[in-house]
Structure formats: C-alpha cells, structure tokens
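Human: For the file, kindly provide a plain-text protein record giving the amino acid sequence and the backbone structure tokens, at your earliest convenience.
Assistant:
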Amino acid sequence: MFVLNANEPTELAAYLQSQNWIEPMESIVSISKPGEGNMNCVLRVKTATRSFIVKQSRGYVEKYPQVAAPAERAVTEGAFYEKVATVAAIQSIMPKILGLDPKSNVIVLEDLGESSDYTSLYQLDQKLEAAQLTQLVMYLNGLHQSFQKTVIDDELENKEMRSLNYEHIFEYPFRIENGFDLDGIQPGLQALALTYKNDEQLKHKIGALGALYLSKGKYLLHGDYYPGSWLKTGDGIKVIDPEFCFYGLREFDLAVMLAHLYITQQEEGVIAFVKENYSQFSELNSTILNGLIGTEIMRRLIGLAQLPLQMDLEMKADLLRFAKTLILEQDEK
C-alpha cells in the first residue's frame, strides 16, 4: 500500500505514474498543502502543465492521530463524487474526481485553485452574502432531490464513518467524564458543560436523535455541511469533503448548516432565507430538524470537534441555552 508523503516527491511521482494519473515523462514541480485538513492527508501536486489534489485516508484522523477512523473513507468519498458527476448542476459546485485507488485509499481530485474555506465566519465579524447563501441552499436542494430513492437500500451506507460521527455528535460531548478538559479551551467551560452533561431528559432526547441519524433514509446527504466544507474560489462557492456522506434524513444536512449559521451569529433574515428557499421545507419534521440543530450547536461548543470560535463564555452560555430549547421544544409545548 502506498503512503502519501509530501517529503517524498520521487516516490509520489512513481506512484502517480503507476496509476496512469501522470505521464511517464511528467515530473512534479511542487507539492504543498491546499489547506488545513482535519480528517485526511491532502496534497496539492503541481507538474509543469497542471495541478491536482491527492487525498489519502488512513486508519486515524489526520489532525487527531489518537482518534481512530475508517481507513477506506476516501473510497466512499470517491463513490460519492462519481455518483454526483451524473448531474451537472451538482458536479459544477464540486471538484471532479480524476482517479481512485481503493487499495491505497487514495483519490485524485480537480484542483479548484487558490481558495479558502468559510471558517473565517467563526470570527463573528463576517456575514454571508445573499449570492453565497443562495448557492449553498441550491446545492442542498439539488443533492437531496436529484438522488432521492424510492426504495431504501445499502448504497453508500458508510456505516463506520457514521458510527464515528455518531460518537462525536451524540455521545462523547455529553459524557460527564470523557477525558477532555474544556477549561483548556476556555476557563469556565467545563463547569458550564456539566449542566448539560447531567441533564438526563436532554440526553434522552439527544439519544433518540442519534438513533435517527444512524437509520437509513432515501436522501443522499453530504454529511458534514458546515463552513469547513465550503470553499471560496474564483468561480464562486464550491463544496468539498463529502466523506461522511450517506442516505438518510435530509433534516440532518439542513440542521448542520443552520446550526453553524446560528453559531456564526448570522442575522435572523439569513436563517429565514434558508428555510424559505430550501425546497419542500414544509414537509420536514420540525421537531427532528430543531433537535438536530440544537445537538450540533452543543457538540461544537462542548465536544472534541472545537471551532476557531471568537466567543466569550457568556455568549456560549446563551447559545447552549438556546440549543437546549431547540432540543426540548416538543416537550415544552
């Protein structure tokens, strides 16, 4: 199995040639990191005539090597890219897949050029523009409608990645003792989190939402639709990193998006725009949607998957209270 390494250009060139991804006489000019990835080893490879992205998944999370993860997740991601390539409107918002090596868990993708993700929104001083918001909502509309199933099956079940995500969304943040010192993130956050870690009613509701997340559905989901998966490019917003993809409840994708709009303190009009422009919003289960929004907010504040969030403790306390209200709203009616 080939191991991707930025410090071994000769080995990388030989590997790329063996896969027929570059010509025999095509040499590598430079290797760089296109951004700060979390899950995988990702490199931008430039030759004299072109550039492309090489991504390899390993048996752990690249940013947190102590966290195990399914090694073959890049293969699943590649299958997602191959599937959406059949619909031009979706493909145009994502990089094209150029190659897939399931033996080494490597995919090669179109290079979208110099770009940056939208994690700058967590500085709380930036707002999404109407055109950007429209693109983001239209992507979900197209994805959920274009690949809707009439009969639920096992395609892109992505069970191991979903189990990993389930742990970090619905379980880990709410364990009283999970080995993660939140005071190391922000003094006082540990005590603030204990209020919710000790709330059995809340955790019961979150557990029920987790069971729904693990269930199969008829809508193809991106699975991690948040600012880190949105790219600013010279050709508008692009969407990347669908490694958590699966067929499930469309409420999940929309909830993750809306949760991060709340976290980044977007205006209420932005939230309203999403709800008004997401197709068939009236058909969604509002209790599930709001519960998933609240859960995503909470796990991002008191779980392991922290954000570069410029927010004081009081703001986080307000947001956590709001999230709890969303999760428990059905019980309070």
Summary: The radius of gyration is 20 Å. The longest helix spans residues 313-332. The chain has a mean pLDDT of 94. The first strand starts at residue 28 and ends at 32.
